[in-house]
Amino acid sequence: MIDVCICTHNPRMDILSLTISGLANQNVKPEVFRVILIDNHCIPPLSESILLPLIHLGIPTLLIREPKLGLQHARIAAIRNTTSEWVLWLDDDNEPTPNFIQVGLDFIHLHPEIGCFGGKLLLPEGANYDRWLAPFLPYLGIKNPGEELKITQVDQWTDAEPPGASAWVHRKVLNRFLQNSSMNVKFFKLDRNGKNGLASCGDSMMMRGAVRLGLSCAYVPALKIFHHIDLVRRSKFFYLIRLMYEYGKSHVILESLLKGLQPIPYHYQLDRDFFILIRDEFFKEKAKGSLFFGIGMIAYHLGVRSEHIRQHKNKPTPFFPMH
């Protein structure tokens, strides 16, 4: 049996119902998986009735309430309430295709060297958005690197590293993640904290644990999720600018947690060099017809620079050892 864990905070109930229905429609036997719903300080609290489509099919379910707000806290609660060798993480706006669990189980059987893997995160059919939004979609949880299987074992981000939404993660990697959570308070600065928090990279913190345990990450194109992101809310330009700024900060925090305090790259040190960096980045994206994304990349680099400077003004904090 595998555990399917859904962490949620004040979800859109109609969309969460699609996630539950997608699991109810899986083409595997009910005893193959259990669904755990983590209510992360939802107001009002979620009712177990949302799980009825699964319960009626004989699929085991569990509703957990985690009062500490934040995705990392919700994930920790899920890990502590599961014992299966593999956990499948879904967001509360993910709709898995009917063969999603079966494809994942088949991949696990064929690849014992894997510590985490995932697949495509696609917009649902008929989703409409303005063309200028397209370069931002990977930062909003849309992923489609193609039809080639990718397996890597490197201590850096690659297409093979799965996002938290739709990620299959081995228990060894989860235990490493749980251990890391107690070593540095900055661990909880990674990833969302309610509707307004836009920090990220908690997914990478989890998945990098695979490499450090001698396991690999994989991208499996046969795995498909429809990601029902709120395009109305997330296509607001100032939201995206804030998001990109927080991505920049989070990337620096992630690397410092994994490898210790990092030297400031030269182009972030002097104002003159930094101006050249953001100028070139802006005009590169503008030449592609992505003026708004060019502004977004300026925000990203501002986030990177501000976090580097902040860290070097303060005492370095403990980082997570390789072994």
UniProtKB/TrEMBL annotation:
- One Pfam family of this protein, by short name? Glycos_transf_2
Glycosyltransferase 2-like domain boundaries: 4-176
Note the superkingdom of the native organism. Bacteria
What SUPFAM superfamilies does the annotation carry? Nucleotide-diphospho-sugar transferases (SSF53448)
Name of the protein in question? Glyco_trans_2-like domain-containing protein
Record lineage: Bacteria, Pseudomonadati, Pseudomonadota, Betaproteobacteria, Nitrosomonadales
